[in-house]
Amino acid sequence: MNHPATPELQAAAWAAVGKSSPHESAQLHVLGQATYTDDIAELQGTLHAALGLSQKPHARITAMDLSAVRAAQGVVAVYTAQDIPGTNDCGPIIHDDPILALDLVQYVGQPIFIVVADTHDHARRAARLAQVSYEELPAIMTPQAAKAAQSYVLPPMHLARGNCQAAFEKAPHVVKGQLYVGGQEQFYLEGQISYAIPKEAQGMLVLCSTQHPSEMQHVVAHALGVHSHNVTVECRRMGGGFGGKESQSALWAAASAIAAAKLKRPVKLRADRDDDMLVTGKRHCFYYEYEVGYDDEGRILAAKVDMTTRAGYSADLSGPVATRAVCHFDNTYYLSDVDIRAACGKTNTQSNTAFRGFGGPQGAIAIEYVIDEIARHLQRDALDIRLLNFYGRNDAEGRNVTPYGQKIVDNVIHELVAELEESSDYRARRRAIDAFNEASPVLKKGLAFTPLKFGIAFNVTHLNQAGALVHVYVDGSVLVNHGGTEMGQGINTKVMQVVAHELGLDLERVRATATDTSKVANTSATAASTGADLNGKAAQDAARQIRERLADYAVKLYGGVAIDVRFFDNHIHVHGHVVPFAELVQKAYLARVQLWSDGFYATPGLSWDAKTMTGHPFSYYAYGAAVAEVVVDTLTGEWKLLRADALYDAGQSLNPAIDLGQVEGAFIQGMGWLTTEQLWWNAAGKLMTHAPSTYKIPGISDCPEDFRVKLFQNRNVEDSIHRSKAVGEPPLLLPFSVFFAIRDAISSVGHHAVQPPLNAPATSEEILKAVMAVQAAGVAV
Length: 781
What we know:
The chain is of the alpha+beta class. The protein has 20 helices and 29 strands.
């Protein structure tokens, strides 16, 4: 006989989280009805701004004639640094980043004035008419040159553990060399844009495409010389961000607000793609000098690396980026004795900034490059060298503490790699590829298996906090507002799922509104892969308070005890009664029960000592691994990704469909960084790859026909939101496998007896250069 399930069992079976629910704006995206900043209906009297840009990489401005700009068609006003009423600065940490250059320009593309006109086109045309005279100064363009000149935007940092020198002396083998890994343009679909609308009593509403509304609020308030409560920043959604709109949306927000405050009229500043790429910072490129000692089996005994980044002309976020690189040099490997140094090179280029991974990928690729070299020297499969050096599984092994002192308590890399090794048929494919290469003189295949470990939390402890508001209306519908920003990654969908789950409602009963500094104050950037973790917890806290109030009220009406009340399937189950959620809400309103609440969350247990570079900076780690198979034409350097297998640890996923999409997108984006996306500055210091015609992101034809992506079945050991794990940045490390598969194919030209000198991005030219270097070693077929 079947007994009816108890409310407890029914509640356990019902869930709004863990389901592959569609993105909350998916239909709007497809129909073209999703409102982005430039889609907002313009108010009467709206003007349009453009920026006048420096034409020199490093120079003093000796004269600036803007008369032709002012006289141009449609121009209403022109503003320079002297016209800024408050602070001329938009630096997020160090105040070394002027909104408008005053008398010194430090890169080609640095803004020096704002022109405001009746149309976007008139403003852009007028900005080109300025006559500026310069006294040119010596320019530093590369991280290598910055290191040679000891030119830094911040003091260099150093992390050491053990006795590296003694470990090197005992090591049977030592590998040393240099590596260069280029930067990457964020290339968001929606460019930088800000729409500033003056309000009464020195108020300013700024509608801005930004990952950090609170930072924009601060910058605008300082630029205008007013308090933060005079400024409201709102962002409903972005057409992509990838870190490029974390700090560097500040310039655009401030410039539009300055003009709007001066003219008492709405001003929109929308960057043309070329201007956007000329002005804004990119992913930091890195130059490495490394030295690693290892034994006959391939076990790493000592590791030394010196990393220099191209920070650009100002500090921006380069310090935290370099810190994360230092903390991710170990990747998945236990390094007993290390000496890790990082410096933020000051160069006369765009001030580089956040980009998905935030230094983590740049730190981890160095140790992977070294392991690739160790394996080739020992004539072993690189996967076996990786397995040998993995962090231990528990305290008993004594190999589970990072160089910065954090104990790893959630290590699943062994199980994850074992699963992918089997599902990808790695060993058999390796044998098949070796046979193919023996028989093929021109086309060479390559195969690589790379793992990842990525720490989740902001480097700066105080940023790991979030707030949210949840409103339940009398009809039973729910509105949620939180401090995270939606850039296509699905944070609103996940937060809505969390709230719906907490209140026992279907997802369609919950709606998320635009991020707004007047609703949730002092928010952190949606960055560091923490968006859903932090804001999901804050929204859960708010919804829980409402649920508990409703439960207390329900037992007054129907009896029982509040702890036994269950919320699921749009009903409240209390003491044998099943009451529709909306019905109880209506009764609760009449009884004056508070139906809204704020929520707050601060990640516990975090610490970091910047002086010693030690502590517990991460809440937990996400893991993953990928296998890539490529074919390379050794006569032209052309290549193709034939198959990719990826397995990613999203913990107990909040939304598997969204998470799988994030892994797929990160894989292709990271592949672009390491292969096709080349940044190039000419001799005059101008970025020449500043448009889709010259900067090559991957297209659909670059995706593998055989693309197998899965989520690893796991449950976060930390009390994250529903035991899920972040999925924004970590999977960008998965396409390391593509880069090393290309290197493996090149290596086969010399029967894997020569280390191919391959830098990133591995463009066809770079590949051909590496092939020729291997052939020149005299061991080619």
